[in-house]
Every structure is written in C-alpha cells, then in structure tokens.
Amino acid sequence: MISQIFQPRLKGYRFPLSIISYAVWADHRFALRLQDVEDLLAARGVIVNYETVRARVGAFGLQIAKQVRAARGKSVEKWHLDEVVISIRGVKHWLWRAVDSNGEPLAILVQPRRNTRAAMRFISRFIARWGVPRVIVTDKLRSYGAALRKLALDADHRAHKGLMNRIEGSHKRTRKREQIQGRFKSARQAQRFLAVHDETVNLFRPAASRSPLPPIATSGPRDFFNGRNMPIN
C-alpha cells in the first residue's frame, strides 16, 4: 500500500496520508485557491490553515503523482506533442507537453526556449521514460522535425495542426488554473505543480479518457484517499 511508502515520512506530521491525498487531489483537480481547499477540509471536520495545505501539497504532491503514473502502466503507441507559452514574472516560457492518444499525460517540461535544442531535450526526456512510440503527432513547428532527425528515432512523424485536439484540452486546463490561482512565480513552481496536476486531474472521471482507468481510480476515491491499491515500486 502507498501508506507503507509514506509512513516514515509522515512521522512528525499532524495529519494522516488520507487527508494529505485529499488536499493534493482537490487542489489540482479543481484549480482551487488554497483557502478553498481549507474550507473543503473544514467541512469534513479537518481544521487546518491554508499555509499548511500549501506545505503538505508541495511536500507530497510529486510522490503521489509518481505512484499514480506507475499504476497507469504502459502508454499506447501514438503520442501527441505540443507547446504553449506561459508567462513567469513577465518572462515568456514554454510549457512542452506530451500525451498519448487517450489523453493520458506522458511528460511536461517548462523551458525558456522554443527551438530544436529545447525540442530535443523534451523528447529525450519522455523517450527515456516510455520508449519510442510508433507515431508522434505534432503541430508544424519545424523544431520537432529537426529534433527527431537528430535523435534518429524510428517513429512516424505526423505534423498537422488539425490532429492536435487531444492535447489542447490539457492546455485549456492550464489556462484555467492561471485564471483562478494566478500565474506561476517560477519555472520550478510551474514544473512541480503541472507534473502533479496532469497526473491527478482525470482521476475518478471515466468520461475524461478512453483508456482503462488505473486500479487507483477504478477502486474509487475512498481507496485512493486511504492509500489503498497503490503498488510499491
């Protein structure tokens, strides 16, 4: 169980994993302000300051996201890559994102550039994790083609803006998050938040994806928030 993984780290903490898991999920699933998460917890009898919520989400979010990703298993063979501009303290950055044909997240990377070198860095990252897919779908940004040629990947590259609907939904959720919670304050904050957000936003939403849900989701919210049915890596 996931509680076995987190139990040593929970020593000295006031709240159990079930409450921390709920705070992480609520914060990312609904793009809430931390004060709103504080109110949701209070409605369940958990009295906690929103700054404590911030600290626990920051401390445990990535670890929970990694376990969700591990529970999902192998990705399908057709991947969609795209990039969208985000502003961090008035400076333009690029959020590079990859999803499979079911809309399941593969990787995200926040970078200050949108060129061949940045594309190579991004592609190398998710290839190292997932292997080489059969098909890679991108928009018409030339950096993708140049990066794929330099990496000499044996994948069918399809560059067509009309094929990008699958990934654009993920970008819309990022925009919604910016509208509600404000812009990111650093590239590191954006990277950490979105890595957790992409993994948790579709949990318990069967209609949001055509792929089979991982055991952590099909077993229901109660098991997730109690740390059940989560494999140990």
Q: Can you describe what's shown?
A:
With 233 residues, the protein is of the alpha/beta class. The protein folds into two domains: 2-73 and 214-225, no CATH class; 78-193, 2-Layer Sandwich (Nucleotidyltransferase, domain 5), CATH 3.30.420. It contains ten helices and five strands. It has helices at residues 2-10, 17-29, 34-43, 50-72, 116-130, 142-151, 165-181, 187-200, 215-218, 221-225, and strands spanning 78-88, 91-100, 105-111, 135-138, 156-159. It is elongated, with a radius of gyration of 18 Å.
Topology:
Elements: H1 2-10, H2 17-29, H3 34-43, H4 50-72, E1 78-88, E2 91-100, E3 105-111, H5 116-130, E4 135-138, H6 142-151, E5 156-159, H7 165-181, H8 187-200, H9 215-218, H10 221-225
Parallel strand pairs: 1-4, 4-5
Antiparallel strand pairs: 1-2, 2-3
Helix pairs in contact: 2-3, 2-4, 2-8, 3-4, 4-8, 5-6
Number of strands: 5
Helix content: 40-55%
Integer-rounded radius of gyration:
18 Å
Principal-axis shape = elongated
Number of domains: 2
Distance between the termini: 10 Å
Would you identify the CATH architecture of the largest domain?
Answer: 2-Layer Sandwich
Which class best fits the helix and strand makeup? Answer: alpha/beta
Please name the CATH topology of the largest domain. Answer: Nucleotidyltransferase, domain 5
